[in-house]
TrEMBL record:
Organism: Thermoanaerobacterium aotearoense SCUT27
Protein name from the UniProt record: DNA mismatch repair protein MutL
All residue ranges annotated as the MutL C-terminal dimerisation domain in the record: 423-563
Family: Belongs to the DNA mismatch repair MutL/HexB family.
Annotated DNA mismatch repair protein S5 domain residues: 209-327
Function: This protein is involved in the repair of mismatches in DNA. It is required for dam-dependent methyl-directed DNA mismatch repair. May act as a 'molecular matchmaker', a protein that promotes the formation of a stable complex between two or more DNA-binding proteins in an ATP-dependent manner without itself being part of a final effector complex.
Gene this chain is encoded by: mutL
Domain of life: Bacteria
Length: 607
């Protein structure tokens, strides 16, 4: 008996449909992309109960004649490509010719379509991949596709769908991303007979972002652009103070197509490294336009993946664009009056005369002109003269100055190089209070010192001096650790370590980094070994940064360490000349600002 069977067309269609149609969201994506390829200017998407029982996509595109409408339901039927060469020059969203056939194979589809100069349209009813009805009908120019009972004939697939509310969430997210990809098209999205959102189609990305994601995200936007002879990149990124708990808002559009790409994700997160906390993710929306010959979109049936011919160039361009935009921007979080909750205070009946949007920005900041307002990365200081010969203050003895004091100390004498800054004092033995004009800045002394030391140690890397230990430091290691240590001797030497084997799974440290004491150096050495065992530390650059972050953290002054006037002054001056004075290497804020106007509103001095 033969073991090899030829599958019938019905089974083949269902298998193919499984690759293209994963869930109702896939159907919406494919239908909307067809509408975009048809040069539509207005697209309406309507779903009920997560799209499982009902999906409708209506557009005003070019439409189809009767012959094309029938052919569109055939497998591998498309108007987008004709030859193999076309695969390397794809300018449309669709090209595989599988969408309608796959959708029709696992649902009930009603298509109405009409070309612009036709007297009548075409109606086609398809169930389970079979055309049940074909007739003339009256309809507007364009296409209307209704999809009902998704996976009605493949119950095994249907039972793996999530709850309708969850499926609706997937669809909403995808529609929002598609609307964001084409601001020149007006999208209307209706969920369960209720309007969710509508975009104007006036080709303004800023307006679409504001409509979809709200004022808080919009007010934190920074805009930047990169151009060369090979590509154009336009990026809308948020300040590090505005982050998300997942990567869903790291959005990439390549030639108008929403895609997912690891090179892009890595470039974004490397650019934000040390600016945001661990397990928080930046918001970055990127439009990349590139010659279609330099990309491959024929990677997966869902067309959500893309490959670049020169991945390094893409990485460098996106990384540098984001990094430069962040460096040009003021990243100090502003504390606003509306962040506070008051109780037992009479309702204010005085009409607010000022512009409420001004409460969301700090001094002289314009949300849509941030780059122009802040031309360099030290926008919160002025007239600061940098010097490569500047010496760092020695904080070695600050631990001996610990105290329980939490009151504000007033300093009347300030160094001449403070310009118009006034260091008011310290609160809770942790936060330095600085006044300038009508702004108050609160500086976290530990985070500030961490940032100072991190940048200092990064500049010193490859030449960190070691000092001989007073007493040799014995470290017991686990079996197999000796191999890891010997493979990374160069790394340890660069960080100031010299050591030798002592037998019986132990080593002796002869020299340790001069910037650390012996107990800290011993623990850091052990921590480095632990990190070298982890797969995600297989790159020298990551290990170097993580190790130096640990060094800076161990060496920095701590909260509740009481500093003298001179130490505070030196710390503040050192912070002013760092490359990034806004966050510590772990991404926590170093400095926050409060405007005098906000304080006066809190105390009801102005209404």
């Amino acid at each position: 008996m033969n073991k090899i069977n030829l599958l019938d067309d019905e089974l083949i269609n269902k298998i193919s449909a499984g690759e293209v149609v994963e869930r109702p969201m896939s159907i919406v994506k494919e239908l909307v992309e067809n509408s975009i390829d048809a040069d539509s200017k207005n697209i309406t998407i309507e779903i009920i109960d997560g799209g499982i029982p009902y999906i409708k996509v209506l557009d005003d595109g070019c439409g189809m004649n009767e012959i094309d409408a029938v052919l569109a339901f055939g497998r591998h039927a498309t108007s987008k490509i004709k030859s193999t060469d076309d695969l390397f020059n794809i300018g449309t969203l669709g090209f595989r010719g599988e969408a309608l056939a796959s959708i029709a194979a696992i649902s009930k589809v009603l298509l109405k379509t009409k070309e612009e100069n036709s007297l009548y349209g075409t109606l086609i009813n398809v169930e389970g991949g079979k055309i049940l009805k074909k007739a003339k009908c009256g309809c507007e120019k364009g296409c209307s596709v209704e999809v009902k009972d998704v996976f009605y004939n493949t119950p095994a697939r249907r039972k793996f769908l999530k709850r309708p509310s969850t499926e609706a969430m997937y669809i909403t997210d995808m529609v929002a991303k598609i609307a964001l990809s084409r601001p020149d098209i007006s999208f209307k999205y209706i969920k369960d007979k209720r309007m969710e959102f509508m975009t104007s189609g006036n080709n303004s990305v800023n307006e679409v972002i504001l409509r979809l994601y709200g004022d808080e995200l919009y007010s934190n936007l920074i805009e930047t652009e990169y151009n060369d002879e090979y590509m154009n990149i336009k990026i809308f990124l948020c300040k590090p103070s505005y982050t998300r708990g997942n990567r869903n808002m790291q959005i990439l559009f390549v030639n108008g197509r929403f895609v997912k790409n690891k090179i892009y994700t890595t470039a974004v997160e490397e650019a934000y490294k040390t600016l945001i906390p661990v397990n928080r993710y930046p918001v970055v929306i990127t439009y990349l336009n590139i010659d279609p010959k330099n990309i491959d979109v024929n990677v997966h049936p869902t067309k959500l993946e893309v490959k670049f011919s020169d991945e390094k160039e893409i990485f460098d361009s996106i990384y540098k664009s984001i990094k430069n935009a962040l460096n040009r921007s003021n990243l100090i979080p502003a504390i606003r009056h509306d962040m506070f909750t008051y109780t037992d205070i009479p309702e204010n009946k005085v009409e607010e005369k000022s512009n409420p949007k001004q409460l969301n920005i700090i001094e002289e900041e314009s949300t849509n002109k941030i780059i122009e307002v802040y031309p360099n990365n030290k926008s919160f200081i002025s007239n600061v003269k940098e010097s490569s010969e500047k010496a760092y203050f020695d904080y070695n003895d600050v631990n001996a100055l610990k105290t329980e004091n939490t009151h504000i100390e007033n300093f009347n004498t300030l160094p001449d190089d403070h310009d118009d800054y006034k260091i008011v004092g310290v609160i809770f033995s942790t936060y330095i209070v600085v006044e300038k004009n009508d702004m108050i800045y609160l500086v976290d002394q530990h985070a500030a010192h961490e940032r100072i030391l991190y940048e200092k140690f990064m500049n010193m890397y490859n030449n960190v001096q070691g000092k001989q230990t007073t007493i040799p430091i014995l470290i017991n290691i686990e079996p197999g650790d000796d191999v890891i240590i010997n493979e990374n001797i160069e790394l340890f030497n660069k960080l100031g370590y010299k050591f030798e084997s002592f037998g019986n799974n132990s080593i002796i440290l002869r020299e340790v980094p001069v910037v650390l004491g012996q107990p800290e150096s011993r623990q850091l050495f052990i921590d480095i070994i632990d990190k070298l065992k982890r797969d995600d530390f297989n790159k020298d650059i990551n290990l170097k940064e993580e190790t130096i972050i640990m060094m800076a953290c161990k060496k920095a002054v701590k909260a509740m360490d009481s500093l003298s006037k001179e130490e505070i002054s030196s710390l503040f001056n050192d912070l002013k000349v760092t490359e990034n004075p806004y966050t510590c290497p772990h991404g926590r804020p170093v400095i926050v600002s409060i405007k005098k106007y906000e304080l006066e509103k809190m105390f009801k001095r102005i209404m």
